[in-house]
Amino acid sequence: MAHHLLVCEKPSAAKKIAYTLGGRGVCRIGQGLPFYRFQKDGDTITVVSALGHLYSPVQQGKGWSFPVFNLVWKPASGRRVKRFLDEIARLAKEADSFISACDYDTEGSLIAFMILRNACGGADAKARRMKFSSLTRDELLRAYEKTSELDVPVINAGMARHEIDWIFGVNVSRAIMDAYSFNTGGFEVLSAGRIQSPTLDALCKMEDEIDLHIPDPYWTSAAEIRFLSSGETANAEYSKNPILRKGEGEELKLRCEGSSGTVRRVEEGELTIPAPHPFDLGELQREAYRVFGFQPWRTQKIAEGLYLEGLISYPRTSSQQLPPSIGFKGILTKLGMNEAYKESVSSILNYADSGRGLWPRQGKKSDPAHPAIHPTGIKPNKLRADARKVYDLIVKRFISTFGPPARKSFKTIEVELERGDVFKVEAGSVSDPGWMKHYAPYVKIGGSRLPEAKEGEAARAEKVWVEERFTDPPPRFNQSSLIRFMERNGLGTKSTRAEIISTLYRRGYISGSSIHVTDLGRGVIEMLRKRFPDLVSIGLTRDLEERMEGIEEGREAYSSVIIRGAETIKGAFERMISELEAAGAEISTLVDGLRDQRGKIGPCPSCKNGYLKIVRSRKTGKRFVGCSNYGAGCNFSAPLPQRGTIKATGEACRACGYPTVLVIGGWAKPWRVCLNPGCPLRVKG
C-alpha cells in the first residue's frame, strides 16, 4: 500500500482538498501547522500546505555589490516558513509517493517543485501533478484520479521569470543606491524593476503629453427646435460641429435664432448588441473598478478568496472562453436555486430550449491551463460585502453570456432652416434588453425619447447657443486603463500586473486615482533613461516575456533566456560603473530636493512668510511642526501624532484655515489632522 503526500499552496486549499478526497475519514493533526491524513482505496494520504512561495532566489555568497549574477534558491526568511518546511520534510520521510496539488499555473507549479526538490529530498523526480480549475468535489476527484507528470516546461518558465526579475531588480536597485551612497555617504531605499520601470516610463510619457498639450479653441453650436405640428421641443446639434472660427459661430447665432425651417429627413433604425464574453482576470479587474471602484489588487485578492471557497473557478486566467466540459446546464441549474438568480436562469434555459441552444458568447483570448472565470454553482453561505459584490458581478456576467442579443432603437431628425443651416436631433433607447436584464445593474437600460416628426413638416429654431471649448489633453491613466495598457504591451502577467501598480504607489512614484507621476518617480525614470535605457524599454520587456512564454510552450530553452537577460543587464552596468560619480550626483540632488519638499507641510499661519516643516525634538525624540523662520522672529509650533506616516494634504482646514496633514498607518484608515490645537475639528477635520 502506498503513502501519498499531497503538497498544496495555501492552508485553506489543503483543507478543502483533504475533506473533498477523504470525507469523514479525515484526521486533522496539529494546530498552528495542521496537516490532514486519511485512508483512500487502501492507501494513506497526507495533505500538507505551503504558504505560497517558501523558496526565493538570493545572492550566492556574501557582500553588497553589483552586478551580481550568481543566485541560489533558498528558503524564505522567517520562523513560520522554517516550521512549515521542517514539518513537510518530516512528513516526506514517511511517504513513498508525492503529488503537486498547488494551483495549476506557473506560480503554483514552481511552489510545489521547490518544496518537492528541496524539503522532500528530490521527490520532484517521481512526483505527479493534479490539474484543476476549481475546488469543486467533482473536479478535485477527477484531478486526483488522473494525475500526470510534473509540468516541467511551466516550472522552468516560472524559475526563469523569478531569476530574470531578480537579476534586473536587485542589480539596478543596488546600482542606484550605491551611486547615491558613493556621492553622499548616506543611504536611501530606491528601486527599479523589469516590469515596474517600463510601466513607470509609459506613465511619464503620458504625463509629458499632458504637460505639453496646448489647448486649441473651437466652438460648438446647438439649438432648441420646436416642431410646429405637435408643439414639442428638442435640443439639436449643428451638423457642421465643430466650428473652428469664433466669428462663424456668432454669425450662425444671428442667422438662425428665431428662423423657420423644415424637417428634411427622419431616419429610424435598430442596432444589435451581442451578449458580453466571460471574464478573464484583466476584464474582471477593469469591470470591478468601473462599477465598484475596487483597485485591481483588491479585486484579485477577493476573487482568489472566492476560488478557495469553491465558489468560482481559478481567477488568474487570460481566457475569455468557456468549454462545454464545465457543464453549462448543471451550473445554471444550481445558480437557479438561489432566489437572486432564479428568474434570470429560468429565462436563459427557456431561451436555450426555444431552439437557440445553451451556448455562451466566447471571447477571443484563450488560456491553455484554465477556462474563463465562472461560478461553480455552489451557493455561498456568508460573504463579506466586498466579496458579495464581486461574486454577484461574476455570476451575472456568466448568466448574461448565454443571453439573447439586446436591441437598441435610434432615431435621427434633420431640420433645415431657411438659410440652409442644418441641425440634427438624435436619440436612442433600448427596445429589447435581451442579455442586459440579466446583467443589471451593471449595465444601463434606458434612453431618451424623441418627438414625433414627419418629413416636410414645419419647425422653428427658438434658441441657438454657441459655446467656446478647448481641445483636451489625452486622459490620464487610472488603474483600470493601466492594466489594459500593460496587457496590450506584454508588461507583466495576469497574476503580477496589479501588484506592479501597487508597488509603484508604495514607492511613492505615482499618486492619485487619476494617476500622476510624482517628482520622485520622474527623477528615477530620467536617471534610468540616461543610465539604463534598456530597462525602460517596452520592447525588451516584451521580448523577454515572449521568450518566457516560449519556455512554457517548449519553444525556448530555459538557459538561453537567462543568458539573454544577463547579457542585457551586463552592458548597462559597465556603463554605470564608469559613470558612478556623475550618476550619484544626479540621484543625490533628486533625493535631497525631494526630502526637503516632503518635509514641507504648508504656509505658516502665524508669520505668513515661512513654511511649516516636521521637526523632531533632540531631547524627547518626539516630532512636531515648526516654522522655517524659527529663531528669526516666528516661534510657531504645533504637536503631531507620534504614530503613523505624516503626509501634507495641500489643503487648509475648512473651519480655521490652518494647514492639514494626513496620518497614514496606526489606524484602520488615514486620519486627517488640522494643525491648529484649538480647532474644533482638530480630530476629524
UniProtKB/TrEMBL annotation:
Which InterPro entries does the record associate with it?
Topo_IA, Topo_IA_2, Topo_IA_AS, Topo_IA_cen, Topo_IA_cen_sub1, Topo_IA_cen_sub2, Topo_IA_cen_sub3, Topo_IA_core_domain
Example GO biological process = DNA recombination
User: Pfam families under this entry?
Assistant: Topoisom_bac (PF01131), Toprim (PF01751)
Using the record's annotation, list all stretches that form the Toprim domain: 3-140
User: So what does this thing catalyse?
Assistant: ATP-independent breakage of single-stranded DNA, followed by passage and rejoining
Q: Which domain of life is it from?
A: Archaea
Query: Which residue ranges does the record assign to the Topo IA-type catalytic domain?
Result: 151-573
GO molecular function, one example?
A: DNA topoisomerase type I (single strand cut, ATP-independent) activity
Q: Does the keyword S-adenosyl-L-methionine apply?
A: no
Q: Which UniProt keywords apply?
A: DNA-binding, Isomerase, Metal-binding, Topoisomerase, Zinc
Which EC number(s) are documented for this chain? 5.6.2.1
The family note in this entry says: Belongs to the type IA topoisomerase family.
Listed name of the protein: DNA topoisomerase
Query: From which organism does this entry originate?
Result: Methanosuratincola subterraneus
